Amino acid sequence: MDQPEPLLVRDRASGQLVPERVFGGGALRFLYGTPQGLLLTRLLAARRPFSVLYGLAQRGRLSRRRVGAFAEALGIDASEAEKPLGEYRSLDEFFARRLRAGARPIDPHPDHLVSPADGRALAWQALPARLTIKDSQVGLRELVGEAALADELAGGPALLVRLAPADYHRFHFPAAGVAGRPRVLPGGLHSVHPIALAAGAPSLLNRRAVTRLESDRFGPLLLIEVGAMIVGTIEHTYFPGRVEKGAEKGTFHFGGSTVLVLARAGRVVWDEDLLASTAEGLETLVRMGTRVGRRGEAG
Known about the structure:
It contains nine helices and 19 strands. It starts with 7 loop residues before the first strand and ends with a strand. It has helices at about 25-35, 35-45, 50-60, 65-75, 90-95, 140-145, 145-155, 195-200, 270-280; strands spanning about 10, 15-20, 110-115, 120-125, 130-135, 135-140, 160-165, 170, 175-180, 185, 210-215, 220-225, 235, 240-245, 250, 255-265, 270, 285, 290-295. The chain has about 300 residues and is of the alpha+beta class.
């Protein structure tokens, strides 16, 4: 049997293409690449109860035995974690770990927008009416859940950061400002991995949380956290009101997931390397707190 081609992403520091370590790649190819798997996905795997039950198992005491093997298999730098591996009480607690102080310096320039998360980024300077990633499409109105809000952001810049299971899974504010309360939109829990997107999975319409941030330098920003298969919970840890750039907003529990940042047209200009890689159909590895864009002329 032929081996599948590895998924390549661009390392931002070196500019080189590197293979991604895929957690459960065989299962994803079965669920989204075979008739039997697609049926199982529709009837069970993409439904919230499945992910909730899976997540509960990863929060059980027995799961702590797998923390070390999980970190080693996915190449996770355990030295960045807030605590030693042996102090995590479950696999999910390690998955949703905080990092030690200073592990993710925040770009201090007030006119720089920073990545809200570690992950693989795609950037569009002018969001089309229907956002297309691989063979998956979603309309802006469907994504944000409000027609007036979609009209406000139509044609504006958009950043998508996909988190893989190996990543640090807390998400943060990309700019300073005043944050509202998250609004939860219902949906399934498809995988957000390119294997699923290439099969046309409606992954960006998964269960998601939408928050408006009235930023100091970039105008209103819309922050969207998208759940995914085996991600039963999106937990917000901030209080609505004044927030600073890089402040923690919340965490995903077990599984891969996605964060989006949307702005009004002209308010944000994404960094050229992100735009160029996106035009090539390539994701770029980014780290939370690093610059991904700057204030636009309309800002």
